[in-house]
Write a structure and sequence with these properties.
Chain lengths: ~280, ~280
């Protein structure tokens, strides 16, 4: 039976009690509207930790004013059932009022990795992500927190925060879970019309083509981008936001691929923005 | 016997062991060169907590390039003896290399309270203070951390961080300890030549005059500043940095004093910058 907790002092007290008994906490922070990507994290936490805590909170601080905070999909009943199905012990659903008492002025930022890729398209995004996670980590004291590889830059920036601010917990990044046609699972896929949904898979297949080129010995990223972009252009109604080959540690652009690199991309399908990445 | 710890994993393990035994930790973060102000914090911690941990670390992140990081007074042997005299249990003296592994990119900032007063004169100062404290709090897990009222703005910004980022600890702010002539104790007083030292007390006595004016019923801050400034001007070799009457919660300027306010000032005495404040 999944226990729903809404108050900050309640989750703190609960987590503290668990830790005091010597049990480990596996934590999955989410914005809800669970899909198989989330469930894969819950399952891993269930397997590895004594107690599984999932937070469900659409964090306003990581959305810019023009972004989709208001229309972000929410369905508490559905999420609770899915959490229960995965034997999540606690579902933490705080209120904006308690999470961001006004005036709110303290933020955690990454000052070098959050200005590229997603951070370039969404300037205050990672500041919002790090701030809410610092809060949740303080409240929940997890031993391990689980994230998805789809949001690679996010996972990297979180790992930097853990290490640099000396948080006492481990981060595990699990593989991207995909639909049958390869589309990376995302709560935002819900925004897609059936025709957009059809076209959305082109991001994955275009990235795949890029990966295959590297596998076949092509090292020059300009050449690779040319192919990937032409693949995206063939699908109508797709607008490229960015496409980069980056160093997985520094996120610096790579011109010639000679070691492990990450091919990352973001596209617009109608009004929906989708991201994905592949190791090459 | 005060135990000296230099390694991050050692202080984390030590603190964790103390907490596991159900004991409380009183923590005083310092930059060393202890004076009676520091010692008053050690004594309070000794009185209230089972175990007292003091950190001694001149934090480079809170100094601007042109500031006094290099010449900031350091004397480990003297500090260790003073800590021992106050029965401090652990003195934590980390290295820059462990505290700021390069490249370092994650910072904690207060985005509204750190642009006025000290923050105006020292733009990245509070970002450095909050970042090092977040690190120390994560390593040491204190129940209570102690600060001095002399650095009022710092104490306020730290309290905001604790509350807004949901750190699980209490902050206590203890009264400013003064020399016989009223000069607020500060490690930087060491920089003063005997003649400068004589003139330095004028900051306190000028603020006192301002406080007395409020006590006598004068409410207008412009009128109060006029008197305080003329008092400072009478002492040669003193340069005013700032003088303000502020709301103790928001640090907003107050024109007419009708409730508890803080009279704050910073001056240059030669090449030394001194700060002080008084409740009015």
């Amino acid at each position: 039976m999944t226990c729903v907790i809404r108050l900050l002092e309640e989750i703190r007290r609960t987590a503290h009690y668990i830790k005091k008994k010597g049990k480990t906490i596996g934590f999955v922070p989410t914005m809800g509207y669970f899909h198989e990507g989330h469930l894969s994290l819950f399952r891993r936490a269930r397997k590895e930790a004594d107690v599984v805590i999932v937070s469900l909170y659409v964090n306003p601080a990581q959305f810019a004013p023009q972004e989709d905070f208001k229309k972000y999909p929410r369905n508490f009943k559905r999420d609770l059932e899915l959490a229960q199905g995965e034997k999540v012990d606690y579902l933490f659903c705080p209120t904006d009022k308690e999470m961001y008492p006004q005036p709110f002025s303290t933020f955690v930022s990454n000052e070098s990795l959050s200005s590229v890729l997603e951070g370039k398209s969404r300037p205050a995004h990672f500041r919002g992500v790090l701030t809410i996670l610092a809060k949740l980590f303080h409240l929940i004291e997890p031993d391990v927190a689980y994230f998805g590889q789809k949001d690679y830059q996010q996972a990297l920036i979180i790992q930097k925060m853990i290490k640099e601010l000396n948080f006492n917990l481990k981060i595990k990044v699990l593989p991207t879970v995909r639909e049958k046609d390869g589309l990376a699972m995302s709560s935002r896929n819900l925004y897609l019309t059936p025709s957009e949904r059809n076209r959305a898979r082109t991001l994955f297949s275009a990235l795949q083509q890029g990966r295959d080129m590297v596998s076949s010995g092509i090292r020059n990223s300009t050449e690779i981008f040319k192919k990937v972009k032409s693949c995206l252009r063939r699908t109508p109604g797709i607008k490229l936001d960015y496409l980069e080959m980056v160093d997985p540690e520094t996120l610096e652009k790579i011109k010639e691929v000679h070691k492990r690199a990450l091919l990352v991309g973001a596209i617009w399908v109608g009004k929906t923005r989708l991201i994905d990445n592949l190791w090459v």
